[in-house]
Amino acid sequence: MATQILATKLYAPVPRPGVVQRPRLIDRLKERLRGKLTLLSAPAGFGKTTLVTEWINADERPVGWLSLDEADSDLVRFLSYFVAALQTIAPQIGTNITNLLGSPQPPAETLLTTLLNDIAAIPGDFVFVLDDYHVLDSQVVNAALTFLIDNQPANMHLVITTREDPRLPLARLRARGELTELRASDLHFTLDEAAEFLNHAMGLAISPDDVAALEARTEGWIAGLQLAAISMQGQQDTTEFIKSFTGSHHFVLDYLVEEVLSRQPPHIHDFLLKTSILDRMCGPLCDAVLQDDGYSAEETLEGVRQANLFLVPLDNERRWYRYHHLFGDLLRKRLRQTAIVDSDELHIRASRWYEDNDFEIEAFQHAAAANDVERAERIISGTSVPLYFRGVAHPILHWFESLPSEILNASPSLWITYAWTLMAAHQSTQIEHKLQSAEAVLSGVEQDARFRDLLGNIAAIRAMEAAIRYQADTIITQARRALDLLHRDNLYIRTVVTRALAIAYQFQGKRAAARETYQEAIAMSDATGNLFVNVLATTGLGIIQTSDNELYQAAQTYKRVLDLVVDPNQPITCASHLGLARIHYEWNDLEAAQVYGERGVRLAHQIESIDSAAGGEVFLARLQLAKGNVPGALNLLNEVEEIVHRRGFAKQIPSVAAVRVLLCLHQGDVTTAAQLAQAHNLPLSQARVHLAQGNPAEALVALGSYREQIAAETWPDERLKVLVLLALAHHQDEELDEAITVISEALASAAPGGFVRTFIDEGQPMRTLLSEAAARGVIPEYTRKLLDAFPVEHRSSQPVSAQPLIEALSDRELEILALVAEGLSNREISERLFLALSTVKGHNRNIFDKLQVKRRTEAVARARKLGLI
Amino acid sequence: MSDTSNPDHPMIYQVRLKGHLDDQWNDWFGGVTITLEESGTTLLTCQVVDQAALHALLRQIRDLGMPLISVNRVET
Predict the structure, then answer these.
(1) Domain check: are A118 and A224 in the same one?
(2) Is residue A39 part of a domain?
(3) Are residues A779 and A847 in the same domain?
(4) Does the distance separating the beta carbons of B42 and A251 come in below 8 Å?
(5) CA dist., res. A539 & res. A535, Å (int)
(6) A411, containing H or E segment
(7) Which CATH number covers residue A703?
């Protein structure tokens, strides 16, 4: 989903030969090597980047470098580049955060925590440079960086160069001695440095008096001295130059740039002005912009570099360069005053070149600079996925904000693209206003196919908006309208909207419609290669199949998700892992259920601030109860209950209560169970409580009214649960024939899915009932299989009395231990968990140490005793 | 805050810089009147639509590295 990473932004410059050595500053930088942050804050032209380059080059630590630009104000883009720069030091890190950055709307807190873990995992100390921080204009990035600095691992030293103080907690860092600062007063050239620069580095021969005059006139400002030096190269009478310079009331810069440019041959002069529109340049790009066969841009660039004309290399290969920012600014100012050059035309040429070479963001930026609205809009729309959905919403949003409403009104599609961009940037409150503006303009437009497609887009945006707020009715109305109006070829939007429609049906419990719509969304995303929608829609289908009791098909569907994403550790697969966990639980494969369940919960924690992780934890508590580990189940349930209440996950409260009822009944606390079932209005739990109280008539009443309620819908999963309890109630009521009839119905609907736990979780009464059913020849093979699945003896529900562990097992170790207990070999475990064989063996050693055993079988036995598995 | 963003009542600011800017900078800053003062300072008089526009202007001054002496709002 994210756009490509430009390697030139990660290039740590190397020192230029012949620059002035500045030991007084380098020593100050070295002195406070161990602090958190070094800040170089000074106006343009004070040699900040050059000094950092000198310093880090003399330092033995590895360096990550990131040259920032305005587009990095997008948090996702900023972090993508941050990680890419870290990977230049430690290529192995960053898989988790890269996965997260590729998922939609990752929460900032999770991203940053993951990034901190990645940083801490980098072996050894390193330096990380953020160059030109002032170009960012983003509270979000400031807040993110503040968080990183507050929690900064000790192996990282951060360096920031900027023209203005960053909005970071500088005062706090200063007070704690964690900040090293160099400012304009430190960075400007002293008299000695000015003399060294002019007479050695620049090869001039200037008298001490003249050096002093220049130094005074420029106030040690390095860019000014450099411009002056270039102007004086090759001049006989430097004193005369200095006299006129120091006597002038002109702003130093005006005077110097005038001098420097007037000394260039015409073709260089022309080259400098025209290429100044480029933020970065290479030979072919300059050729495309200049369109002049008279000379080669490649050679001219080399000439400009040799003439010291403020050209900064951006790679090792002398391929990409940029002008020193200040010099570039001045060249652009002059370009604007040159009437003969049409800078819009230059921008369009640059945009074309970038587009041809697949740099879409740059192509957009130059189109916007050329005020070519049509071109900019076309590039934003992208060839398959729109640009704003690829992590660059901010620059596009800035552009829209700059457009006067007359331009937007002239083309209603612009209002709509504006609204999509706002959605991509999560600024939903402003969306409706843009849509209404579009509608106002569209009311006077000819009603052709394009007009219909635009109306379809408006409906699609409203459907997506409603999906964020779970408003099923609105989603359905707007999504249907969108699908009716959108152009047949507008596949990207049609796919996204179809999936939103399926979700709405699912919210409403209309499973047949949801199933059909998910299948459509899958087919469409298969055809368009939209992996993201494909994964979400396939997961949705799996959930529907599960609730229709089609467990084998559902398991296939979830496994398809894991195949689609290639790396099954992507957070987007969390629902599929949890789905597989529930299916394996039902099949009585508790170890597989544990593995899938734990992985699902771990992945859910990575992406979601919503409640699926909590749902997964409720499941894990239920699983512990099924394994006979009552204390483990209680612990898990207490933890998740606390989270559910604290974060207000209302949807999970009934499922927590249902497991709590089971636990109470297991411990014989019928009173509390009854209260809970009543308070949360859980008919199935109420029936269980009545059965536990030996009151089948009441159970039948509770189940009867629930059965009527669900009969209106076709809900096979709920129906099966009702039938099972109903059969038990009839049985307890000594209506054997009725009980057999109902359990036969339940068995018939459960057999195709291979359900096991739904029956055996009901314990001894169900065992008796099934034996009687078997005696009467009800679905003999399946009934026999169920009877065989009951445990030989009831496991003790007393808390385990074994010695507790001195050091607890980690989640990973527990995961591996469960697989060992399942009888998997080390190699099978390594394949199942995507770990190296040696890693699995390492974990095994730790497990054995912690359990104080020597063999796999001993480990399993001891872990069982401790209730760990 | 009503006066900070009302385009019918634009605000006028005077920004004083150290050094003399030549008047070619006019279009660079966009709609700014440049007055060179005898004390060797430059006075920029500019009409801005809102605070965001004012800060953009100050950023441009920052990017030139020009020492800023004062910023005053002129009552209209």
Answers:
(1) no
(2) yes
(3) no
(4) yes
(5) 6
(6) none
(7) 1.25.40.10
For the residues of A218-234, what is the DSSP string, one character each? HTT-HHHHHHHHHHHTT
Main-chain dihedrals φ then ψ at residue B35, nearest 5 degrees:
-120, 125
Of residues A282 and A218, the one with the higher pLDDT is A282
Residue that finishes a domain, picked among A172, A187, A202:
A187
Question: How many structural domains comprise chain A?
Answer: 4
Please give the structure tokens belonging to residue A497. 């909207």
Quick check: A45 and B25 CB within 8 A?
no
| A105 and A71 belong to one structural domain | yes
Cα A724–chain centre separation: 44
Give me the residue from A221, A254, A337 closest to B65, CB to CB: A221
A444, part of any domain: no
Last residue of a domain, one of A314, A330, A356: A356
ipTM value > 0.90: no
Adjacent-strand bridge partners of B72: B14
Q: Is-contact A558 A576, C-beta < 8 A?
A: yes
Distance CA A507, CA A512 (A): 12
Asked if the Cβ–Cβ distance from B63 to A251 is below 8 Å, we say no
Start-to-end Cα distance in chain B: 16
CB < 8 Å to A164, chain B: 62
Q: Do A250 and B63 touch (CB under 8 A)?
A: no
Do B19 and A251 make contact, defined as CB atoms within 8 angstroms? yes
pLDDT surpasses 80 at A2: no
Q: How far apart are CA A592 and CA A598, in angstroms?
A: 10
Angle at A157 between CA A152 and CA A162, to 5 degrees: 100
Checking if the pLDDT of A739 tops 70, the result is yes
Cβ-defined contact of B28 to A336 (cutoff 8 Å): yes
The answer to whether residue A742 sits within a structural domain is yes
Are residues A209 and A120 part of one domain?
no
On whether residue A853 sits in a domain, the answer given is: yes
Clarify whether residues A246 and A268 are in a common domain.
Answer: yes
pLDDT, residue A49, reads 92
Q: Verify that A180 and A279 share a domain, yes or no.
A: no
Question: Which residues of chain B are at the A interface, by a Cβ-Cβ cutoff of 8 Å?
Answer: 19-22, 24-25, 27-28, 36, 40, 42, 62-66
Same domain, A36 and A172: yes
- Contact call for A163 and B20, based on CB within 8 A: no
Interface test mutation site (partner B, options A251, A255, A343, max chain B beta carbons within 10 A)? A251
Domain with A860, as residue range(s), is 811-865
Nearest CA distance, B74 vs chain A (angstrom): 25
The pLDDT tens digits for A153-203 are 999 999 999 988 898 888 888 888 899 999 988 999 999 999 999 998 888
Say if residue A170 is in the same domain as residue A202: no
8 A C-beta contact, residue A759 and residue A725: no
Integer Cα distance of A371 and A365 in angstroms:
10
pLDDT for the residue A805: 66
Backbone φ and ψ of A40, nearest 5°: -110, 105
Shortest CA gap A147–chain B (Å): 26
CATH number at A51 reads 3.40.50.300
- The residues, any chain, with a CB within 8 Å of residue A550's CB and separated by 6 or more, are A752, A753
pTM of the model: 0.67
Write out residues 288-327 of A within 8 Å (CB-CB) of B: 325-326
* Interface residue A251 vs chain B (CB under 8 A): yes
Domains in chain B (CATH in brackets) are 2-22+31-74 (3.30.70)
- Measured between CB atoms, does A164 come within 8 Å of chain B? yes
Q: Is A642:A680 a contact under the CB 8 Å cutoff?
A: no
Pairing of strands B41-48, B32-36: antiparallel
Give me the residue label for tokens 């591996």: A816
Chain-chain contact of B62 with A163 (C-beta, under 8 angstroms): yes
Each residue's pLDDT tens digit, A669-678: 999 999 999 9
Report the chain B residue with the minimal C-alpha distance to residue A44: B65
Strand-pairing partners, residue A322, are A312
A253 touches chain B (CB under 8 A): yes
